[in-house]
Amino acid sequence: MSVLSNDQVFPSKVDLWVTVSCWLSAAVSLFATVTLLGHPSFGMGVLAAAVLLLGGVLPLWLITSTRYAFGEAALTARSGPFRWTIPYPEIREVVPSQSLLSGPALSMDRLEIRYSSGKVLLVSPEDREGFLAAVAARTSPA
Predict the structure, then answer these.
(1) Side-chain-side CA neighbours of residue 108 (13 Å)
(2) Percent of the chain residues topping a pLDDT of 70
(3) CA 127 → CA 44, 48, 52, distances in Å?
(4) 2 found inside a domain
(5) Which domain holds residue 131?
(6) 3-state SS string over 78-99?
(7) What is the pLDDT of residues 31-79, one digit of tens each?
(8) Which of 44, 45, 115, 132 is the most buried (most CB within 10 A)?
(9) Are the beta carbons of 90 and 134 closer than 8 angstroms?
(10) Smallest Cα–Cα separation from 80: which of 100, 92, 95, 63?
């Protein structure tokens, strides 16, 4: 595949502790949901649904969907229901990072994308070198 092809996608690297945490959260949420449903009332049903969605479905959605796509004009990071779009001309630099700040990065082996006016996005592509080459190909002057 050419480095400059459109819609080049890089899945996130996922640390084992993140995977275990997400599955544990899903299991605990399922148990809590079953427990809450043992108390039949509308309020408990709503609470059970919220617990299952936020504690069970969301973490699993995040670990299965986090990826970074190079489109025609911008890099798009996706993680569950969350999306970030960075036009290539706004990318200032990409540097290694082990920041604990939140972002669509499921590994501590992170890259910090600095863009626009001081904005930062943390990512953790599985193919770090390929990702860096794709960024360089799209942001370097011709």
Answers:
(1) 5
(2) 95
(3) 44, 38, 32
(4) no
(5) 67-139
(6) EECCEEEEEEHHHEEEEEEECC
(7) 888 888 887 788 888 888 888 888 888 999 999 999 999 999 999 999 9
(8) 115
(9) no
(10) 63
